[in-house]
Each structure stands twice: as C-alpha cells, then as structure tokens.
C-alpha cells in the first residue's frame, strides 16, 4: 500500500498506457496513476520477446495521452563492477530493445 498522495496535479480524463504493468514497479505505477484520476490501461505482454509487441500494445490500447514504457527485468545480483559484458547486454536488451 502506498502512502497518501501529496501531488496536486490531477490526471482526470487522461488515458495512460503502462507496459509490463504486472511486474516490478508496474502495480505501484498503476495505483499512483489511478489515484491521480487517470484511466490506466495496463498491458502485461513481455515487450522484449516479440519486436511487434510494442506496436500491438499501443494499437490495442487505443487513444492514449501518456505512454509509460515500463520495462522490467530481474536485477542482476552481483555487484555492478563484477558484471561481465554479456550479462550487461542481457539486462539492456529487454529494456532498450523495445524502444
């Protein structure tokens, strides 16, 4: 449960598409935007698995005022300085590739 909102900006009437809404920060982002009055379209497909998935998510959502491209993957557990190039690429591919 999130703490009480202190933002004064409302998003009433705005349609917000949040990708990967069911993972990592997606549920909290959905709650925040909903509490601010937005109509949230929560897409749950994995965008990195299919190059056409991003376009399909936008098309399926219809008109959107805000696109929040939330790309979630599990964080690597070793310290950053010990992560090799292949591990960095495996982290960046699903986050940057769909862009």
What does this structure look like?
The protein has one domain. The chain is of the alpha/beta class and 99 residues long. The protein has helices at 26-35, 53-61, 85-96; strands at residues 15-18, 39-42, 66-68. 31% of the residues lie in helices and 11% in strands.
Per the principal axes of the C-alpha atoms, what is the gross shape?
A: flat
Note the beta-strand portion. 5-15%
Count of strand segments: 3
Widest sheet: strand ordering: 2-1-3
Q: Over all CA atoms, what is the radius of gyration?
A: 16 Å
DSSP helix count?
Answer: 3
Listing every helix as H and every strand as E from the N terminus to the C terminus, the arrangement reads EHEHEH
First-to-last CA distance: 30 Å
Q: What is the averaged pLDDT score?
A: 85
**Residues in helix, %:** 25-40%
SSE-based structural type: alpha/beta
In terms of per-residue confidence, which ranges show pLDDT below 50 for 5 or more consecutive residues?
A: none
Largest sheet: 3 strands, parallel
- Provide the domain count: 1
Offer a quick outline of the entry.
By secondary structure, the protein is an alpha/beta fold.
